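Appendix B. Raw example, untouched.
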Amino acid sequence: MGTRADDIQARLAAYEGLRAAATGTGRDPVNLPMIRHWCEAMGDTSPAYRGPGAIAPPAMLQAWTMAGLSGHGDRSGPYDELLRLLDDLGCTSVVATDCEQEYLRPLRPGDTITFDTVIESVSGRKTTKLGTGHFVTTRTDIRADGVLAGTHRFRILKYAPARTPAPKAKRPRPVVNRDNAGFWRGVAEHRLLIQRCTGCGTLRHPWLPGCNACGGPDWDTVEASGEGTVHSYVVMHHPPFPAFDPPYAVALVQLAEGVRMVSNVVGVPYDKVRIGMPVRLEFTAYDDELTLPVFRGVAA
């Protein structure tokens, strides 16, 4: 005979492959105005996204499925049942953990988007710092004029909150991968390194595997002077996050070299930060493992 845990997992696994939402249709066809707005917001100047032969940036994949503030309201019965079952098991809290996208063909202006979502997997019971629970992964297949163009996987953790007091929170660790490892090595040496395309000379930040101007894969680095100005900023009041003490200012800093990066502004009260304020780079150690670049406000 199986254990109770086996029985529970079998009940959860029975939902795998069932619809999570009804088939939907994008509110608008793929269109150049939306592509232009997205590129302007992201600072993406690739010529591939402009002109008569333009394609949509692959990372816009999910944008064509969004329903706006009104929402879709088309979640399926099986998905609601799965969430209620997890609630009954004590997993009453939820947090989004990650998403993955796969691009199979470029989207072009005029493409009509349809999509459907299934419950792809429900994990066994996992223990995390937040508590114990189950990871639920949904997969959305996105089609352009009926042809599969990409997939979007979205993963949540439905969990029972941990009841033991959490240790003093540390600042979140950066995600270091093969594309940005050089940047973090530079930070460890108190150097702010900017990628430079060796093909066209374009500087770029954050670090990317290829040039967003010419598409070239080869690059070297230049070290930032550390001078910059506040291009825009927000003051974080709510919600409070562990290891952060609101209110505090988070700025998009325009470096003297022409690229921008997000960081904290220190050395001035949060309510004195202003657009155009000169700032200077420094490095702050938050614990024995984590050092981050921040920007100190400079008196005019």
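End of appendix B.
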